[in-house]
Design goal:
By secondary structure, this protein is of the alpha/beta class. The chain has helices spanning 14-24, 36-45, 62-72, 87-95, 109-134, 151-164, 180-189, 211-216, 233-236, 252-264, 290-295, 301-307, 324-338, 348-356, 362-376, 389-393, 422-431, 436-443, 447-456, and strands at residues 6-10, 29-33, 50-54, 77-82, 100-103, 170-173, 198-202, 241-245, 266-267, 276-277, 281-286, 310-313, 345-346, 381-382. The two termini are 33 Å apart. It comes from Archangium lansingense.
């Protein structure tokens, strides 16, 4: 029997604790703490999968709870709540290691979704650690969370794997929702820097007046409210990887300083003149055409060339429709588990609708669609009626040769099974010496699905393990 995830909810308002217990109690083991002091005692005694804590509480506040949790259990995900959602609080919480931020008042489904995503993030972190232990440097490559076996994705995988082994700057390009952060994490987790920090920041989400302070740090008294010196994200990522998402949104003055950091490998905090040496690999990402932006004077041309050392283009989902059944099966399993629902799969009609939709929001939009379908499905399988009307009504194409015409709904992976022949599976297990976990990761399918395929072809993984 699968163990339920554990959630600690910390708030000095009794009604909030009761609300969380009601919303999450059927899915997770929920423990409530009426103040920060009680939460610290609970955290000292045991590990939780996810902690949801208010920021402003008498006695020990949410930041003390956050620090205590992350220092003791780095893989526990922490969600911060507040009715005072100021930018400094949000930025400080995220920099201190919070997974996300929840502003009161909220709709009932907001914490459910957020905790589910936090649980999945923790699962992926732990899975990455296991894969790291199973795969010493040079023996394998982990694409945790990156699903797809199309020709376009295999080319992206090849470039990402090559980039990971070269300690150089990487520029990930592609439309919004194509999985650039997952690709950046794959670069980091498979590099020589894997034991050091991976720090991610969305440049477009930083307020213009805080960009330089957040990236490069500031000295005491550098501006109003700077009561003490503070390290920036480059210093936090020292020895590891800094992921600059939506780097094309940086203001021009911040671009100048970023260029200097990349050239000199040192930062100067705002309000200070003494440089601080940093050893950071930068992985940048953007949905913009930076070359065109540079031609229009909106992005520095010299910074573009400094970032574009190793470019990797991630394909949009409409250009790799053959991956949609694999992705749908993966996401159905993921969100079914998160919501405590057991679904048999998708009907042929539902899968045909998914394949025919152009997905302007790419994998992110597909995930939101599957999440909604899992939540509203009334029967044992997701049907066409469970999909949003805009997805059902906008159909612009299907897989070549009518591949989605007759699909058994118990397993959306059936569409891809022709590609998983006995010869392919045999070669796959030979390459990974019978390690089913690593073989499934490389193939872009769930471990259980690979086991079913091996059983179907009467292939024993033990036959490929070293003697």
């Amino acid at each position: 029997m699968e163990t339920r995830g554990s959630v600690l909810v910390v708030d000095d308002k009794e009604n909030i604790l009761k609300l969380f217990a009601r919303l999450l109690g059927d899915t997770y083991e929920v423990t409530c703490a009426e103040d920060g002091a009680r939460a610290l005692a609970l955290v000292a005694a045991r590990e939780f999968d996810v902690v949801v804590s208010d920021v402003r509480m008498p006695g020990a506040d949410g930041f003390e709870v956050l620090r205590a949790v992350k220092s003791r259990y780095p893989n526990t995900e922490v969600v911060m709540m507040t009715g005072y959602a100021t930018v400094p609080d949000a930025v400080e919480a995220m920099r201190a290691g919070a997974f996300d931020y929840l502003q009161k008042p909220f709709l009932p489904d907001a914490p459910v979704e957020l905790v589910a995503r936090a649980m999945e993030r923790r699962r992926l972190r732990l899975q990455a650690e296991v894969l790291g232990r199973e795969s010493p440097p040079g023996t394998g490559f982990s694409f945790t969370g990156v699903v797809g076996r199309s020709a376009a994705m295999q080319e992206s995988h090849r470039l990402i794997e090559q980039a990971a082994r070269l300690d150089i700057t990487v520029l990930l390009t592609g439309e919004t929702g194509t999985g650039k952060e997952l690709a950046a994490r794959a670069v980091h987790l498979n590099s020589a820097r894997r034991e050091r920090p991976f720090v991610a920041v969305n440049c477009g989400a930083l307020p213009a007046e805080l960009v330089e302070s957040e990236l490069f740090g500031h000295g005491k008294g550098a501006f109003t409210g700077a009561a003490q010196a503070k390290a920036g994200l480059f210093e936090e990522a020292n020895g590891g990887t800094l992921f600059l998402d939506e780097v094309g949104d940086l203001p021009l003055n911040a671009q100048v300083k970023l260029l200097r950091v990349l050239q000199e490998r040192e930062v100067r905090r705002v309000g200070e003149t003494r440089p601080v040496q940093v050893d950071v690999r930068v992985v940048a990402a953007t949905h913009r055409d930076l070359r065109a932006e540079a031609a229009q004077g909106r992005f520095r041309e010299d910074l573009f060339y400094r970032l574009n050392v190793f470019p990797v283009q991630l394909p949009p989902l409409r250009e790799r429709k053959e991956d949609i059944p694999l992705l749908a099966a993966h996401l159905l399993d993921k969100h079914g588990k998160a919501m405590g629902r057991t679904l048999e799969g998708m009907t042929p009609e539902a899968l045909r609708v998914l394949v025919g939709y152009p997905w302007p929001g790419n994998v992110r939009e597909l995930e939101n669609t599957i999440m909604r379908a899992v939540a509203v499905a009334a029967g044992p399988a997701v049907t066409e009626r469970d999909l949003p009307s805009e997805v059902r009504e906008r159909q612009e194409g299907a897989l070549p040769g009518g591949a989605a015409k007759h699909l058994p709904y118990r397993d959306a992976l059936d569409l891809a099974r022709d590609r998983f022949s006995r010869e392919y599976l045999t070669a796959l297990l030979r390459d990974f010496e019978g390690n089913v976990t690593r073989a499934a990761e490389h193939a872009g399918i769930e471990r259980e699905s690979l086991h079913r395929l091996l059983k179907r072809y009467s292939i024993r993984s033990d036959d490929f393990k070293p003697r």
